[in-house]
Amino acid sequence: MSPATLDSSIWIPYLRTRRYASTVDPLVAAGRAWLHGVVLLELYAGTASAEDKRAVDAIRRSARELGRLVCPNEEDLCLAGQVLSLYSRRHARIRPRDHSHDVLIAIGAARTRSVLLTENVVHLQRWADLLRRRAGLRVTVVRPAAGEGTER
Fold first, then answer.
1. At 5, phi and psi to the nearest 5?
2. What is the pLDDT of residues 94-147, one digit of tens each?
3. Is 69 part of a structural domain of the chain?
4. How many domains is the chain built from?
5. 151 lies in some domain
6. pLDDT tens digits, residue range 41-94?
7. CA 77 → CA 11, 70, 120, 146, 148, distances in Å?
């Protein structure tokens, strides 16, 4: 089982309805799931209750204890800005704030040599392709099978 960075588009349905449990549970149990700092930010931003916050706290605590929390450094931030600029020059003007999280998550997945699991394959693959061309970073972007979700 390859290590994987889970995008918030995987964590959120997993936490709400256990969607993707057949993928997430074995990764977490084996200590093979990476948590990106930007995903952590998005998860906390989406908490609507104390129970939600406790669930995110537990994910954060586990990731830290296992050494599986990855946060962008100065080089990652600079590379993300350069990739966004390159895309904007070649294709169309974009608002960096609309894409910076995705680029940083893709960089983190490349740096940890993990598969990037997301529901947003088309968008993340765009950034993965540019990272390969611009910086030689390789990341595989995959949408996991949804499996059976159950309401909590």
1. -95, 125
2. 777 788 999 999 999 999 999 999 999 999 999 999 999 999 999 999 999 886
3. yes
4. 1
5. no
6. 999 999 999 999 999 999 999 999 999 999 999 999 999 999 999 988 888 777
7. 23, 13, 21, 32, 37
Residue 150 in domain? no
- Residues 12-40: tens digit of each pLDDT: 999 999 999 999 999 999 999 999 999 99
Nearest to 119 by CA among 145, 88, 148, 82: 145
How far is Cα of residue 90 from the mean position of the Cα atoms in its chain?
25
Assign residue 79 the CATH number of its domain: 3.40.50.1010
Q: What is the pLDDT of residue 49?
A: 96
In a domain, residue 152? The reply is: no
HEC per residue, the chain: CCCEEECHHHHHHHHHHCCCHHHHHHHHHCCCEEEEHHHHHHHHHCCCCHHHHHHHHHHHHHHHHCCCEECCCHHHHHHHHHHHHHHHHHCCCCCHHHCHHHHHHHHHHHHCCCEEECCCHHHHHHHHHHHHHHHCCCCCEECCCCCCCCCC
What pLDDT score does 42 carry?
Answer: 97
